[in-house]
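Task: fold both queries, return tokens.
Query 1:
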Amino acid sequence: MSDTSAQLPSAAGDRATEEFVGHRELLFSVVYNLLGSVSDTEDVLQETWLAWARRVRQPDAEEIDNPRAYLVRIAVNQALARQATISRRRETYIGPWLPEPLITQTPEARDTPQGAQAVDAAESALRNESVSMALLVVLETLTPLERAVFVLHEVFGYAHTEIAEILGRSPSAVRQLAHRAREHVQARRPRYQADPHLQQQVTERFVAAALGGDIAELMSLLAPDVTMWTDGGGKVRSALRPVTGRDKVARFLNGYATSRLPETLDIRYQQVNGDPSAVVFSGDSPYAVMVMDLNPSNDQVTDIYLVTNPDKLSRVRLDENGVPTGVPRLAPETDLELDFDPEADAP
């Protein structure tokens, strides 16, 4: 065998790795918005890498003209195939299910070398209302195909014809899915981007009132029809159903603060899914992540999302400067050199 032919697999592997790493930011963002779970997203990215590597490294494989489109198609369809398993898992989930919180760095965090290093591939698409915790909750009520069309079109700007190719559907069918999804989302989540500074101020006042037992302040901050979701996943004590109404939420929070909290808590304020939020630690261990949504007319709190399930907080930690971070590990280059059958057909 000549030296050139011996080097072909390595060269193909280098190209496969380079293309995948170059697009993994987009792939992570798309899949996370389809599934709402960092762990499931990482699994899908791993499956996408394997399928991509098999295809690229096949002997005499034809050149792929648009690797980005090819990778997105693999990732989206892998995510859709995983939906059945996820749905079965959530049927037995104890209490409300909330998306896994994804901590992103504040703009100020980029000013330090440590902060800049912590900002990874998942961040850029997670800093606007389109992927807020509130909207992710609404997206859970769509069908998998409606959600895929909505995310690809509304969040990432794909044309209906492009989405049709990704999903293997006709453009007219995609347009119908897009229309239904858009109407459904707009009915439950009118577009409103709260001022980040105001949202953080309200969050800080809310946390201080809840921990301090200031019922009057809580009542002034809460909208009359406020709803609170607590996701403990059966691992920690939490409400098994959403708590609705200002009086009930205020009483629940007061009881929670006086009877269930550890003696020592450390509250850090950080971006979670693009929104200013409270990240709570007990010692060095994550205890809870709380995200709030505000009413556009009076800036009262309309929705509270409290995640205490330790499985969903396993990636949340304090860095060497005491700053909360939870940027996922996105199959770095050293993890991409995997063994597989180069003769296997790509899915």
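Query 1 returned. Query 2:
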Amino acid sequence: MIRIGLAGWGDHPTLYKESGAARNKLASYSRWLNCVEVDSTFYAVQSQELMHRWAKDTPAEFRFVVKAYQGMTGHARGGGSGYKPFPSEAAMFEAFRESIVPLQEAGKLAAVLFQYPPWFDCTRQHVDMIRKAKQQMGEVPCALEFRHQSWFAPEMREKTLDFTQREGWMHTVCDEPQAGDGSVPIVEAATDEQATIVRLHGRNAEGWVSAGQPNWRDVRYLYRYNEEELQDWAERLHRLEQLSQTVFILFNNNSGGDAADNALQLMRMLGQVPPRGAFETVKPAEKAEQLELFD
């Protein structure tokens, strides 16, 4: 099964053109796509109440890929300060695990995505950190995404994949600009029979290295996949589908609002239809005209 989704649900105007659609964006989103990546959990551990609301606002077959809190992936550097506002690493992991319980109980948690930072290179210390992180997550399904090229250097590619599988992680296949050490190639592989994650970040090489610039959010993921590129991905997805029961493909190329359009384009290519049953939308003015017919 191939599930198509986006990174977040708040910033995709293509999906909210119909009257009232923006009032509850997650509910409206779930009528277009059947999975989503949650990014807010990277910046703060969210409350169980919020997770419960997300579960309630989506249909039974909907799935969430939840990003791990930044302190859990080494983004907050500086020793113990990376655990703040928690007193310890153990307390941080415990708080995160407790926060996602409502999604687990609803059967809607696809995976927790551990996206490690660009400086997180392939070293013994970092291997041990990954191993410890998985141990602290227990039986929670987890996906692993690297940003440093050393993990998939020719001599390390198979070793990294073997480690990922052995430690019980899902492999995350990434499509991103090839811009030095802080990027990885497309590694078409699966390490988990149940699921594989695919994340499409775009191919804007200049924007990819804009971290630290005032407008980095506006340019980092500024890219629209063309027909040929999406067709290549449709073929890759079919191959990955032979290796994992479910393949989640998540479009993160949304600096210019392209993610939703690309997702729906790929859906058509794969012969899928949105959960709502149709791609066509009814504009508010058109609805008004239809109602006037019965006045």
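Both queries returned. Flag for query 2: The mean pLDDT is 90.
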